[in-house]
Specification:
The protein has helices at 11-22, 36-45, 62-67, 85-90, 103-118, 167-173, 215-223, and strands at residues 2-7, 27-33, 50-54, 74-79, 95-98, 124-129, 132-137, 141-147, 150-155, 160-163, 179-183, 186-189, 195-197, 200-203, 206-209. By secondary structure, the chain is α/β, with parallel strands linked by helices. It folds into two domains: 2-118, 3-Layer(aba) Sandwich (Rossmann fold), CATH 3.40.50; 124-223, LytTr DNA-binding domain (OB fold (Dihydrolipoamide Acetyltransferase, E2P), Beta Barrel). The strands form four sheets. The chain has a five-stranded parallel beta sheet. Strands 10-9-8-12-11 form a five-stranded antiparallel beta sheet. The longest helix has 16 residues, at 103-118. The chain is elongated, with a radius of gyration of 20 Å. The chain starts with a strand and ends with a helix.
Length: 224
């Protein structure tokens, strides 16, 4: 699932993107913004995969706004001015939509984003916890444990990061080939599995039970 936001000073343009996103499989438009500062504050707390970004805006243009984003976020520029296309692709934009654009053209841009994300080797995730944004390297994760409305990320360093989010949301952030949910309460990195004995996975110092709902997925994992 691609998580996205949209930033445009025109409300109608945002509504069109919102409508198109609702009809596009595999895309979740989390928020829409018409004020740049609001969008920046959101990104500081909740990194996303993609931003639909207008270029001509009152305060700072979209190109400059994107250059100042610290996260590795993909961008699709949406603008009424075709003359910015070269500048857009110089900052590695996934696509460049000239207004008014069709739903079909919008879908094409999203498909390009999916391909770009798949071709990018993911090495880290950004997690908001304790009023800070944590940059967590995937190789450092020992396992993820569910704690009611929270998750606990166990790291190789012995540090634990507790964040308010669901296991489903966490699973969507992690590369599916490298991390598997094996129990309603556990997500584990496949490469760290030592042995599987009966219905238990031995993972370093941890012994993780295999949940009934996940035994078929674990069986497939073993056969590969």
């Amino acid at each position: 699932m691609i998580t996205a936001i949209a930033l445009d000073d025109e409300i109608l343009a945002l509504k069109i993107i919102e409508n198109f996103a609702a009809r596009t499989e595999g895309l979740s438009l989390e928020k829409i913004f018409h004020i740049q500062n609001d969008a920046q504050k959101y990104l500081n707390k909740f990194p996303v995969d993609l931003i639909f970004l207008d270029i001509e805006m009152p305060s700072k243009n979209g190109l400059d706004f994107y250059k100042n984003i610290s996260q590795n976020t993909k961008v699709i520029f949406t603008t009424a001015y075709s003359e910015y296309a070269v500048d857009a692709f110089e900052v590695n934009a996934v696509d460049y939509l000239v207004k008014p654009f069709s739903f079909e053209r919008f879908q094409t841009a999203v498909e390009k984003t999916k391909a770009a994300l798949q071709n990018t080797e993911q090495k880290n995730i950004m997690i908001r916890a304790d009023y800070k944004l944590h940059n967590i390297m995937l190789d450092d994760i020992e396992l993820v444990e569910a704690l009611d409305d929270y998750i606990k990320i166990h790291l190789q360093s012995g540090q634990n990061i507790v964040a308010r989010m669901s296991m489903k949301s966490m699973a969507e952030k992690l590369p599916a080939q490298e991390f598997k949910r094996v129990h309603r309460s556990y997500i584990i990195p496949v490469k760290n599995i030592k042995t599987i004995v009966n219905r238990n996975i031995h993972l370093g110092d941890f012994i993780i039970p295999i949940g009934d709902a996940y035994k078929d997925e674990v069986a497939k994992m073993i056969q590969k």
